[in-house]
Amino acid sequence: MESIGVLMMCPMSSYLENELQKRFNLVRFWNFPETHRNSIRAVVGNASTGADAELIDDLPKLEIISSFSVGIDKIDLGKCKEKGIRVTNTPDVLTEDVADLAIGLILALLRRLCECDSYVRSGKWKYGGFQLTTKFSGKSVGILGLGRIGTAIAKRADAFSCPVSYHSRRAKPDLGYKYYPTVLELAENSDIFVVACPLTDQTRGIVNRQVMDALGAKGVDEQELVKALTEGRLGGAALDVFEQEPHVPEELFQLENVVLLPHVGSSTVETENAMADLVVSNLEAHFAGKSLLTPVV
Amino acid sequence: MSEPSESPLVLVHRTPTLTYMDDHLSRNFRLLKTYASPDPLPVFLSRHAATVTAFVNIGRLKIDAELLSHLPSLQLLVCTCVGTDHVDLAECKRLGIAVTNAGDAFSDDVADCAVGLLISVLRRISVGDRYVRSGKWAKLGEFQLGTKVSGKRVGIVGMGTIGSRIAKRLEPFGCIISYNARTQKQSIPYRYYSDVLSLAADNDVLVLCCSLTDQTRHVVNREVMESLGKEGVIINVGRGGLVDEKEMVKCLVEGVIGGAGLDVFEKEPQVPEELFGLDNVVLSPHAAVATPGALESVASVAIANLKAFFSNQPLVSPVRLG
């Protein structure tokens, strides 16, 4: 398979790069010689860099896109279906990491852990105690999207005695959590609102001004979110993802009631390796004519 | 003319900022306030507190034999912390003084904080937040990987009201819980270790939430940290004195252990400055109890103990005096 051209869209994992290099003719998009276009039969992207229609059209021999992520909103799926291009992602292996981080973000936000850390490091503690923060245990948690990740978040929130409710495309009565038929009703009935659904045409901007107002000073249309936070209409936000990563609205940098992370939902040593193995396995299966392990298209 | 059932007299001490119990106390009792007088404390007590039977110590004023000698009628000491290492319990026992603490009042909050610190250290939340705010993500891109929390082996030192809540919260993360405590608890399903050294050897994370006593002072020493190992993480929401702090700083700087999440320190608010430059620690200013809900709960427990005392009922949260 060493002659198969695989185009990696951006640096994402040196472990993955090495594994791909061993098996295929790895071409790096950031050093991409134009002449290689016809040799590319596979693309490896990630959550922030996928494959749009233009790129797909530019690679006439493209057969499969294997994403180093579970989110595939940066891949033009319509175009892929049209051209018979397969698409795979990395579900399940990262479910726990993302759920762990969601709880970590809630705790960091409500208990102001990052602020506390800065407070001590700056020496300010010598002059007085930190302000009171907000209790997490017992708060109502509303989850938007009760898939694998949403369910894992719900299980964890349960252990903090948080009543859990959700909105999803369909109700899931077996799980025992309260279902709300609209996002707005979910927001009206939650202290903490967790966004854990995929980004699709139906969900783009779903957390809009109305929803944020319903959440109140105690998602996402990012511009609206920034306004809601800076104007004090929304109590706080903990964000691991942004509309134009790695660019983050700078108005957020000065706010005390936000926690900002550089899309590290699955960024642990353990999980990155598992995700990389899944990307490689999907590619190997495809080129050996076997069934894909985790196909999306 | 005094009413037939006059409110009982209670001695109260607090620092200027800890006002959260003022209303609760004044509604229920007549108060003798140490902080309303310019007199030094021993002088104030000698002058005014000879007949006082109950004392509410809001905060961590040291209660030693000397101070107690000015309170000859004292029968009840109400503390607002869970930890009572600031109180000479042996002397209280000798003098027949009952002591109460905060009971369960902020156990949830401390447990939440412990889990928050654990996730923050392993997943690098606090350093990640600094990374984004500094603009480095946009310029430099990649951020160093963290470590998975789910499935980690967590050894809890102290399985009381706080330790058991920490265990409960970590269970759905698939963490494997084991513990060390004064005695094994038959009713809980976790593996018991009779000493902290062997607990450290078998775990990825050590969470400290036991009381500080002569037996537990510096229970986490160099040997324990070496046993925990270079990927190991210490989370301390107990007392700074549980850890040999100087050694811990060295172990963190030298990479003998992997990281730490610390809410308490040996000489608060002094914190070893070598920690300030480290990305593998998360520091907190003894804030594990600092939520409005927690303070309300502590106030309720204190009032409940006082009312029980004055009506000869069993105390709500008595401390074992050994």
From TrEMBL, chain A:
The keyword NADP applies. InterPro entries: D-isomer_2-hydroxyacid_DH, D-isomer_2_OHA_DH_cat_dom, D-isomer_DH_CS1, D-isomer_DH_NAD-bd, NAD(P)-bd_dom_sf. Residues 103-265 form the D-isomer specific 2-hydroxyacid dehydrogenase NAD-binding domain. GO terms for molecular function: glyoxylate reductase (NADPH) activity; hydroxypyruvate reductase [NAD(P)H] activity; NAD binding. GO terms for biological process: oxidative photosynthetic carbon pathway. It comes from the Eukaryota. CDD domains: HPPR. GO terms for cellular component: cytosol. Residues 38-296 form the D-isomer specific 2-hydroxyacid dehydrogenase catalytic domain. The keyword Hydrolase does not apply. Keywords: Glycolate pathway, NAD, NADP, Oxidoreductase, Photorespiration, Pyruvate. SUPFAM superfamilies: Formate/glycerate dehydrogenase catalytic domain-like (SSF52283), NAD(P)-binding Rossmann-fold domains (SSF51735). Belongs to the D-isomer specific 2-hydroxyacid dehydrogenase family. GyaR subfamily. This is Glyoxylate/hydroxypyruvate reductase A HPR2. It comes from Raphanus sativus (Radish).
TrEMBL record, chain B:
Transmembrane segments: none annotated. Residues 115-288 form the D-isomer specific 2-hydroxyacid dehydrogenase NAD-binding domain. Keywords: Glycolate pathway, NAD, NADP, Oxidoreductase, Photorespiration, Pyruvate. Residues 50-319 form the D-isomer specific 2-hydroxyacid dehydrogenase catalytic domain. GO terms for cellular component: cytosol. GO terms for molecular function: glyoxylate reductase (NADPH) activity; hydroxypyruvate reductase [NAD(P)H] activity; NAD binding. This is Glyoxylate/hydroxypyruvate reductase HPR3. The gene is LOC108853013.
